[in-house]
Design a protein that fits this description.
Elements (H helix, E strand, L loop, with lengths): L1 E4 L6 H10 L4 E6 L5 E2 L17 E3 L5 E3 L1 H11 L12 H26 L5 H22 L12 H10 L13 H11 L2 H12 L1
Parallel strand pairs: 1-2
Antiparallel strand pairs: 1-4, 2-3, 4-5
Helix pairs in contact: 1-2, 1-5, 1-7, 3-4, 3-5, 4-6, 5-6
The structure holds glutathione.
């Protein structure tokens, strides 16, 4: 498979899942923006994803998968024994989907305009910060009593939450109000899969 990715973006989440599972992957770096291109040859990335965004997963049969939440579950289901997602159809799977949807719609898309579109200005940043504050408090309460989002074990929801919540670093947003979240980010950062994904993205 091939993963179209951009360092520092949400494509890190499926990349972490791929490293957790030890899957064979070729990385294809994309420069996102108004004219998104494949870094290797400067070709128009919209020929691959007309919407111009990462992540895109190209499967070995040539088909393309977009949307991080779907991709994370697809990857987990390739190797259910790895335990990155509870079985499809189970109550626990719905809890996973609940977290994935929360991260996507309440966190990821609150950060996006602030992190990737500074041209929106200070007012947009302030609205994002307020929204993220209350969402982080919700996550904090959960992490005070659970090491991971699904309880005792790491899942693809953690790959996604780590990716998005760690955007507080480039934004220099202090985490003092959310100590359990801060400790969680360091715990997840310490995983081999995360270190490997970050290193390989830098080198690609
Ligand atoms: N709905 C997509 C959104 C992905 C997304 O927001 N990707 C961002 C990086 S985090 C991107 O590539 N933005 C460039 C753009 O929208 O032009 C998903 O959840 O996978």
């Amino acid at each position: 498979m091939k993963l179209y990715f951009t360092p520092g973006t949400c494509s890190l989440a499926p990349h972490i899942a791929i490293r957790e599972l030890g899957l064979d992957v070729q990385l294809r770096r994309v420069r996102i923006g108004p004219e998104p291109v494949l870094v290797a040859d400067g070709s128009d990335f919209r020929r691959i994803n007309p919407l111009g965004y990462v992540p895109v997963l190209e499967l070995d049969d040539g088909s393309l998968l977009t949307e991080g939440v779907a991709m994370l579950q697809y990857l987990s289901d390739l190797a259910p024994e790895a335990g990155l997602a509870p079985p499809a159809g189970s109550r626990e799977r719905t809890t996973l989907q609940q977290w994935l949807t929360f991260i996507s719609s309440e966190l990821h898309k609150s950060f996006s305009p602030w992190l990737f579109h500074p041209e929106y200005g200070e007012q947009a940043a302030q609205v994002a910060r307020q929204r993220i504050d209350s969402r982080f408090t919700h996550v904090e309460r959960h992490l005070q009593t659970h090491p991971y989002l699904l309880g005792e074990t790491f899942s693809v929801a953690d790959a996604y939450l780590f990716t998005v919540a760690d955007w507080t670093r480039p934004l220099k947003m202090p985490l003092a109000a959310w100590p359990a979240l801060a400790a969680y980010l360091e715990r997840v950062r310490g995983r081999d899969s995360v270190a490997q994904a970050l290193r390989l993205e830098k080198a690609a």
